[in-house]
Description:
Chain B is of the alpha/beta class. Chain B has 18 helices and eleven strands. Chain B is 42% helix and 13% strand.
Amino acid sequence: MSGGHGGTVGRGTAPAEEYAPVFTGPVRARLEQLFSKYPTRQACLLPALWMVQEARGWISEQAIGEVADVLELTPAYVKGVVTFYTMYHTHPVGRHFIQVCTTSPCNICGAEDVVKALLKETGCGELGATSPDGRFTVIEVECLGACGFPTPILVDDDFIENVTPEKVKGIVQRYQ
Amino acid sequence: MGYPHPSHPKENVVLSKHFGDPEARSYAGWVKHGGYQALRKAVGMTREAIVEEVKVSGLRGRGGAGFPTGLKWSYMPKQALRPHYLVCNADESEPGTFKDREIMRWTPHALIEGCAIAAYAIGAERCYIYIRGEFTEPWKVMSAAVEEALANGALGDNVFGSGKRIEMMLHRGAGAYICGEETAMMNSIEGRRGNPRIKPPFPAVAGLFGMPTTINNVETLAAVPHILNRGAAWYKSLCLGNPKSTGTKLVSVCGHVQRPGNYEVTMGTPMRDILYDMCGGPPAGRKFKAVIPGGSSVPIMTIQEAEEALFDYEGVVEKGSMLGSAGMIVMDDSTDMVYQIWRLARFYAHESCAQCTQCREGTAWTTKVLERILAGKGKQEDFQLLLDLSKNMTGTTICVLSDSCAAPVVSGIQKFRSEFEAYIAGSREPVLAAV
Amino acid sequence: MADELVNVTIDGMQITVPKGMPIIEAAKQAGVLVPHYCYHPSLPSPAVCRMCLVEVEKAPKLMPACVTAVVEGQVVHVNSASAKQAREGVLELLLINHPLDCPICDQAGECELQNYVFQEGRAGTRYKEYAKRYNPVEDFGPDVLYVPNRCILCTRCVRFMEDVADTPVLNVSERGDRAYIGIAEQQRLDHPWAGNVVDLCPVGSLLSKDFLHKARAWDLDKTASVCPGCTQGCNINLDTRDDVVVRIRPRPNLEVNRHFMCDYGRMNYRWMNRGDRVEAPLVKDGARHVATDWDTALDRLEQAVRGVSGSAVILASARASTESLGLVRRMLDRFQVTAAVQVPLGDEAPLAGIPGLALRRERTPNLAGAELLGYGVHWEAAMREVPSAGLVIVLDADLGPEDEAALAAAPGIVVVLATVMPEARNAELILPVTNMAEENGTYVNRDRRIQRYQQAKAQPGMARPAWWVAGEVLAGPGPDPSAPSTAAEAFALLGERWPLFAGITHDDLGYTGRVLGEVPAGAGGAR
């Protein structure tokens, strides 16, 4: 089923290897600490999904099953939540995930040129595609809340303000 | 202050005084700047006294709705027979708005202090701060600040030795504008899809986890310590326009201005002062054309309307728009209005939660019609179609996302019709490929 | 809490209803149907379809009737211009991606989208330049197909599985106009009550594989009946076409099954259509059976009933009606009778969200009725009586090889009343009887609620209801007006012998039945 936001959502194809659980050891301990912060296990769902994405880079069907088990929810329920929130990847992406804001305030300040420059510099070619060397995936996102600093981009967790096409090469080089 | 620019004399710098100052981030630095005195004072007051003070001040919700804050707090049950919750709405996603990010990354303790006072005032021992997933820097800064506050007794089981308990937790969003709607935010915290809820029941009756809850915006909460420190009468006196709009407002000006940034103005400041004096007017060689004053969900104003408006809740309404979140998007004469309205419609279509028929299908169809016009395949009937869709999408849904999509479309056709006509007539080259 | 009543006016009609009732329910009492999709009286109301928006005087916006409570003095307009315009708007939007599948869609003829569009939708679409959203059909599980293109996202199916079945196996996936109903890859829609989502779906998006392309809705005759699957006694409709039962669907009864039935009952109808029936009364003639007429057969039966000495055994089917069980029992009043009813067992499957509703272990619809009429659940004990019995009546029971062998060796007279042709080599008489789809009758469910079921298809061959056979014998040879000619008359004969059934008529039972022993307040229970 086609997603609507630059290819982060799709029917995830699970890798062929056996699935190793995420919630063991210190990750499990971190999750269990959260149980006391919320009156229900269900409320730990978004934080748990972040932990999976931190550990694996994306959220597979098996990971959805594991989260469902740990939080006593059903896989269908968890999947409904995962597919609602666009920051969760349901299939593997490049090592570095680049999100570019192109909503109107940035749009009128040249955001689309930044997108073109990034697609070229990273070698991705088109939105949502991963570059041939597996380094990057570039997508357009909606307002990043830094409209006074056009064009803001997120590279993984790095929030970079005032990106222009001229600065793109230097930024891309920093990420291997 | 117009961070990253120096303060302008016409500003009234209260919340933004320390934007850009890294020292303000630490607990010690904040205390040096006078921080946490209000909280110390608050835990020695009664809940009712704090609520009354905030009521008198005239503080209104700064997230967009402008609902009187003290009144909202007074809806909470007087006795906390069940757990009460405070939720701080830090999901700032309204296009054009970027003020809450600054409050969090420069003055995190201002927000923490405001949240703590508010939590105490509404009888809540637990406060969740919902920060959108993309705000990675505010998350780090706020996390560190909450730890510090806890270590210094400003939070925890025994706030400043008062015996009162205030727990603060950060909750990370994951990419959904709709979670900025207060009931959707509660669903999101509960581990659900971010669907807005029907009201009634209202949050103060049955909110987060079914318990009495108040949701306030970052800027609203950051104003609370100032009100307690300097008095409601002082806050109320900050008023240059309608007496129902008091205090200061952070205006996030962006787009085609010389100096985009957050400007803090007294309510009722003339919009032209913001546009020309503080922001330095349009880029060289260009002229202002349109302003969307309150984040993208409000009607577009022509520059003429904007130049005549006083910037407070009533003043902007008088000129046909709304103050909203004060995310002021300024467009000059190089802007393709049809294209930008399409881009906004696309935003709303992307963010629709899919519950209500009008929003789910209407935002998408609106986007497609505009795309077709931009692709050179528009027709005269499309005006009526867009207006019919917009009418269908206004006042008919659980939340106002669909109304927000309709606002730029209706005002755009009303005020910039010639730009649409140009595409339809073929006198303007198509800018998109056919759908 | 005492029901406070309020007066409201709906489309000009003044009604008095309990305070707090949603407008959509109050409107029913005014005879006004508020068009809706996502609302359902047995599901929580999310108010998402926006179809039920009505005009409420003094309210600033149109209000969703499913979640807006009535208040004193409220004036509601369901069919005002603004409400109709809003509905037209919703319908237009639902149709922009909905495919023109009516010619190939099972739901046609019983489709709520068709109905409302025809009633008040636009004549033509304005969505001409665009391709419709396309997603392939999905197989959700044992019986349910999901056609995403037709889905209007009312979420009734999701809410049923989550809130009523307490098994969140369906979700809404993605956002905006990309949304669809999803199921996790590792889960199937195999809950014992999952078939209800097909009924709940207002359009042809969720379909039953069993019913797929089988019959058109307008070709079906619907007959009110009671499910013969277990002791719960869910109210059902038997849908027949050309005298063949093609589908069973639940019928609302707020006291028994609300709006639902389990998949076991739903799928268990093929036996009603079996063709290998006893065609005519058969009488033993040496080593074989010869077909004869009813008069001859009844005479033979009456001779046995009046002439045989010793004890009698009745082996009754799980699905025999109260009327049949009762009159057969009365027919043998001069004997020492051991009467047993067959009770196949299975696993219980409750519907978590509705207390008191479950697929019951006892897979018989009339166990309570049988027990009240003196039948016991002691099959083996009854079989042990067979070798010493003078007369054995088999009332359409399912006989296994051991039972058949025992009957074949029985020294007494064996009379078999059967639907499907039995083995019964030794039987003196094999008499064709109707199954429950071919007769009127009643069942008593586990809560002692006696409910009527009605004839849905024609009696095949010379089959008659078992109560008729016994009734004729009871009345004696020759025509006798006292012999019951309808199930209602047969039922009336039960009260003399079993006081619990006295004073009730079939008419009293209406469409939703009555609990035996309870005197209902006011008129009978149809809602």
